[in-house]
Write a structure and sequence with these properties.
Layout: E1 2-7, E2 10-17, E3 20-27, E4 38-47, E5 52-56, E6 61-65, E7 78-85, E8 94-97, E9 107-110, H1 114-122, E10 128-130, H2 133-139, E11 146-148, H3 157-161, E12 167-169, E13 175-180, E14 185-190, H4 193-198, H5 204-222, E15 227-232, H6 245-252, E16 260-264, E17 270-274, H7 281-284
Parallel strand pairs: 1-10, 10-11, 14-15
Antiparallel strand pairs: 1-2, 2-3, 4-5, 4-7, 4-9, 5-6, 7-8, 12-13, 13-14, 15-17, 16-17
Length: 286
């Protein structure tokens, strides 16, 4: 099911599967992040070092990579483009060429679907439970199955509040320490009490790490951690850690953004690349 509630002027959205929170997003209907929006843009400058062109969208400027249709563009060209990554980290939106012809001048042509439509696309029959009637009135013209459910967030408020905390409790007494930086997100797995309680024996750390991988993948999706992600699993020698690859790949496959396990570094860090579409929650939640 999909839950919707107003919090501090924005609509907070939660996606539950079998009663488990699997995805979370913040939607500002009056100030959307622009992902999926179609614009007419005018090329203003080529940036050879960046491999693309800057495009005037009217009220903002975006970047169109050569790999997404910018290679043949020249200064002054009018293009139909779509935002594929929201502005974040001090950078403007990332663009791709859109089918069809541009309109007469730079500006917004059509809004994209927004996160609630993306959740519904994953679960077309899922009901949408909204806390207040004003929100219901806004949603019903576009979505079927919108129902009134006061305090629908009551059972998940505590979990949501923890999504910006750097420490996550994991199965088996382990914990993950999440450290975002501008370049990457580092996740350190601490076996903690698990090793102390069970003692040292062959295969213990491998079993512990395998057991926590599904929850770790869920946290990556919930927090919308993106870009380069490095995971330092607990205890195992660097040479043994690639044995975790099948479990990690399977857990990541449930994520609609389809993050990729690139492999393990020489130091044994799992290297994951998750597409940057919207800012991570730690950048937008108070």
């Amino acid at each position: 099911m999909i839950l919707a509630a107003r919090r501090r002027g924005a609509v907070h959205l939660a996606l539950l599967e079998a009663g488990v929170l699997v995805d979370y997003a913040i939607w500002q209907p009056d100030e959307p992040d622009g992902v999926g929006d179609r614009y007419t843009g005018r090329v203003t400058a080529r940036a050879p070092a960046l491999g693309g062109v800057f495009v005037d969208l009217g009220a903002a400027s975006g970047f169109l990579p050569d790999s997404a249709g910018g290679k043949s563009a020249s200064d002054g060209d009018l293009l139909a483009v779509r935002i594929i990554r929201a502005a974040q980290g001090g950078k403007g939106p990332r663009l791709a060429r859109a089918p069809g012809e541009p309109a007469g001048r730079p500006g917004l042509d059509a809004r994209g679907p927004g996160p609630i439509a993306e959740f519904r696309a994953l679960h077309p029959a899922a009901p949408i439970l909204a806390e207040d009637f004003e929100l219901i009135a806004r949603l019903r013209p576009d979505f079927a199955g919108v129902e009134h459910a006061p305090s629908c967030f009551a059972g998940i408020e505590e979990e949501i509040a923890g999504l910006t905390e750097p420490v996550v409790r994991l199965p088996g007494g382990a914990r993950a320490i999440i450290s975002p930086t501008p370049a990457l997100t580092a996740i350190d797995i601490d076996a903690g009490a698990a090793t102390a309680e069970r003692g040292e024996k062959t295969g213990l750390q491998a079993r512990l790490n395998r057991a926590l991988i599904p929850e770790l993948a869920r946290q990556i999706r919930l927090r919308n951690l993106n870009g380069a992600i490095l995971i330092d699993f607990a205890g195992m020698k660097a040479s043994a850690r690639p044995s975790l690859a099948p479990d990690l790949t399977q857990a990541l496959a449930r994520d609609p953004l389809k993050p990729r396990l690139l492999g393990f570094t020489s130091l044994g860090f799992a290297e994951i690349l998750r597409p940057r579409i919207r800012p991570p929650l730690h950048e937008i939640l108070p």
